[in-house]
Amino acid sequence: MVASQPDAPLRVVTFNVLPIAFQLVQQWAEQTGNKIVLAVTTPGPSTRRTPTYREVVAKAAPTADAPAIDVLVTTRLRRVALPLIRALQPDLIVSFSFPYRIPPEIRAVPRYGAVNLHPAPLPAYRGPNVMRLFYDGWPTFGATLHWTEDDFDTGNILSQHAAPLPDEVTPQTIMTRWPQLIMGAFAEGIAKACAGDPGAPQDHTQASYAAPFTEADYWLDWHESRRILQRKSTALNLMNAAQAKAHIEGQACSVEQIIPLPDAASDRAIGTLLERNGENVVIRVGDGQVAAVVRPLQSDSTLSQ
Length: 305
Prior knowledge:
Blueprint: E1 11-15, H1 19-32, E2 35-41, H2 53-59, E3 71-73, H3 77-88, E4 92-95, H4 104-107, E5 114-118, H5 131-136, E6 140-147, E7 157-164, H6 171-175, H7 178-194, H8 215-218, H9 226-237, E8 245-248, E9 251-260, E10 273-277, E11 280-285, E12 288-296, H10 300-303
Parallel strand pairs: 1-2, 1-4, 2-3, 4-5
Antiparallel strand pairs: 5-6, 6-7, 8-9, 9-12, 10-11, 11-12
Helix pairs in contact: 1-2
């Protein structure tokens, strides 16, 4: 049985750099009658800039239906964020897509503590790039709400909602389930956090790391199977359109979508362009054929890959 949250509305500080993450926290607050008293966002460290923070700022602006949410844009959590958060006296801190560790001084401020929402079934795929879960074909996907600790994604688990990875990993099959799993883990975990639940320790021996994609990861290999190519292109493009790349007849192309085609006998070499209709092509791959939507890459650096 899931504990209910306190009767009084929670005063929440949320830490986000992805607009979809901020929107989900905002949606939860609106649906439950809680109040976001501050949204903290950041351009991120110099080695991993996150320009999407501007979209978080924009989404916190007032609308016809809702007042503005105060926003703090900073890279200095102790010096700048801590005094402001202390003054606000929030009940809860929520982080969801934030590239910095939240210092213990900040985590100690709210009455109910600080939690993090990680969109993967921890302890698998800790780290900044949960799209790697789909790229690798991990058997489950979902979300975990856990207590925030000094190290990323390591705290005791309050709630986890997961589902089997679909046979066809497409934006549609993922996004019809993933938001529900995220919101389910979030709502259940928040209630447990407010009830003082210590959560369940993670099995660190089972942990894996969701590393950023490398340049080599972006390039699809036509020798792989139809399902693997579909899965990888979905992982690369789901949050950042047209990151997947491949060579077609010696030309470097961005690959926007891959659709496995039914089995068809062919003696053509793997990687052969079988059909073209503008941006729509059919390619011979490791176990058959795929349809793809492609565009030429213009950068000279890509042509040498």
